[in-house]
Amino acid sequence: MKPRLNAYQAAPNAMKAMATLEAHVANSGLDPTLMELVKIRASQINGCAFCLNMHTHDARAKGETEERIYLLNAWRESPLYSAHERAALAWTEAVTLIADTHVPDAVYEEVRAEFEPEELVKLTLLITTINAWNRFAISFRSIHPVKVKAAA
């Protein structure tokens, strides 16, 4: 795969606006590990290797376990996630797949039971932001860092 475009070089002010939005989301007060789980799950759905690489590393750095990262794609079948996390992940999937789901009332009721209104807005902004980053990375074919194995 070959990168198509460096968005930071092509439109630095637009990317500065994205970075400002990201900084706002990062300082929203949501749980940092939950934020990484949401970013990973949205990036799994969208197939964004660049963001998956970044956010799995970030999740580990924030104390997330390998097991929970590995099982995130099958969170419904695993007892490792709390009701709060399950609500956030269901909301992440519904909002990420909005054209297909139109965000069902049942998912809204589930997340509303776990998140205060302000938190729900912040969670939705987080999901919206990672989906935007996924679209930049996928559209312009951003390549994640690759470690080259040392010759034997």
Task: Please explain how this structure is put together.
- Helix content is 68%, strand content 0%.
- It has 152 residues and is an all-alpha fold.
- It has one domain (31-139): AhpD-like (Up-down Bundle).
- 26% of the residues are buried.
> How would you name the CATH homologous superfamily?
AhpD-like
What best-fitting shape do the alpha-carbon axes yield? globular
| Structural class determined from secondary elements | mainly alpha
Question: Helical segment tally?
Answer: 9
- What is the CA–CA distance across the termini? 26 Å
Topology:
Blueprint lengths: L6 H4 L1 H15 L5 H15 L2 H13 L4 H5 L12 H14 L1 H4 L3 H10 L2 H23 L13
Quick structural overview:
Helix content is 68%, strand content 0%. By secondary structure, the protein is mostly helical.
